[in-house]
């Protein structure tokens, strides 16, 4: 498939391209219409435009959108060798997308989306390809900030933006965060620039003596929303309110930067973090799930 080619499914009007600029020219308004729910395609398309597709794999990414009556109704993106990530889909849309991708010979390792969409597409992909979907153990919640409520009690100390002198500390803590969340990525000084962690703004929480005890990151303002991504306190420093304080600080910074919506993901199996974000004013927007696909081997 050439980067500037668009493919039309006669049944569902699904268009596919490898060109992120073409995709955003057609689907950008749709993605910005629901910035909270569309946080993943908004974030990753911006990241790909800034760094180039080659930074994330030797193969080009794939983008798609569903047009009906001249309006975009759904969209998706997929990075090389990674999960398909669609926006919310109806049963008919999920089936049409699965049928179209299967007919074109695409092989998908997984799907990641809001709970309902992920389940619909997993079943549709199984119908059209025979692949076996397996629900991932980690279930996420996508939260959106309502009215920010500072933590009470508030720990002693202050927040400050991360500077160049703190980079080693940030790399170390982001590595700890990635391992704790099961992310298969190597984070060190050599690989840092090529990870998703490098394009964030980080805020540290310091104790009164200047010791950094917690960190939170946020992505740039994209489509009117900011994703708070990475909230980490080393295990031996937890239980003092540092995570709440630094999350409140970075959430306040996101609003000050012009975000109309501030969102974050959290592991639904962690009652401590879920309760913390709710106390700060975050409310559950949707559940998020992933299914891995196992394809049966062909026999002669």
UniProtKB/TrEMBL annotation:
Keywords: Transferase. Gene3D superfamilies: 3.40.630.30. InterPro entries: Acyl_CoA_acyltransferase, GCN5-like_dom, GNAT_dom. Residues 157-300 form the N-acetyltransferase domain. GO terms for molecular function: acyltransferase activity, transferring groups other than amino-acyl groups. This is GNAT family N-acetyltransferase. It comes from Streptomyces dioscori. The lineage of its organism: Bacteria, Bacillati, Actinomycetota, Actinomycetes, Kitasatosporales.
């Amino acid at each position: 498939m050439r980067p500037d080619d668009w493919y039309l499914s006669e049944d569902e009007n699904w268009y596919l391209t490898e060109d992120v600029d073409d995709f955003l020219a057609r689907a950008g308004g749709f993605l910005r219409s629901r910035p909270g729910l569309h946080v993943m395609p908004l974030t990753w398309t911006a990241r790909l435009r800034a760094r180039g597709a080659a930074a994330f794999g030797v193969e080009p990414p794939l983008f798609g959108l569903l047009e009906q009556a001249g309006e975009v109704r759904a969209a998706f993106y997929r990075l090389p060798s990674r999960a398909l990530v669609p926006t919310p889909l109806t049963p008919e849309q999920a089936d049409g997308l699965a049928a179209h991708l299967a007919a074109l010979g695409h092989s998908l390792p997984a799907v990641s989306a809001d709970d309902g969409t992920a389940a619909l597409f997993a079943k549709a992909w199984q119908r059209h390809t025979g692949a076996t979907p397996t629900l991932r153990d980690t279930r996420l919640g996508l939260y959106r900030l309502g009215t920010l409520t500072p933590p009470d009690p508030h720990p002693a100390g202050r927040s400050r933006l991360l500077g160049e002198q703190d980079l080693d500390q940030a790399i170390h803590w982001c590595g700890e965060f990635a391992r704790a969340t099961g992310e298969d990525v190597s984070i060190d000084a050599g690989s840092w620039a090529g990870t998703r962690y490098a394009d964030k703004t980080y805020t540290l929480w310091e104790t009164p003596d200047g010791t950094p005890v917690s960190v939170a990151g946020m992505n740039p303002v994209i489509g009117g929303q900011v994703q708070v991504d990475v909230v980490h306190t080393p295990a031996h420093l937890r239980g003092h309110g540092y995570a709440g304080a630094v999350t409140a600080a970075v959430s306040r910074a996101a609003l000050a930067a012009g975000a109309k919506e501030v969102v974050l993901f959290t592991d639904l199996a962690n009652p401590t973090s879920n309760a913390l974000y709710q106390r700060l004013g975050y409310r559950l927007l949707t559940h998020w799930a992933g299914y891995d696909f196992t394809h049966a081997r062909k026999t002669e």
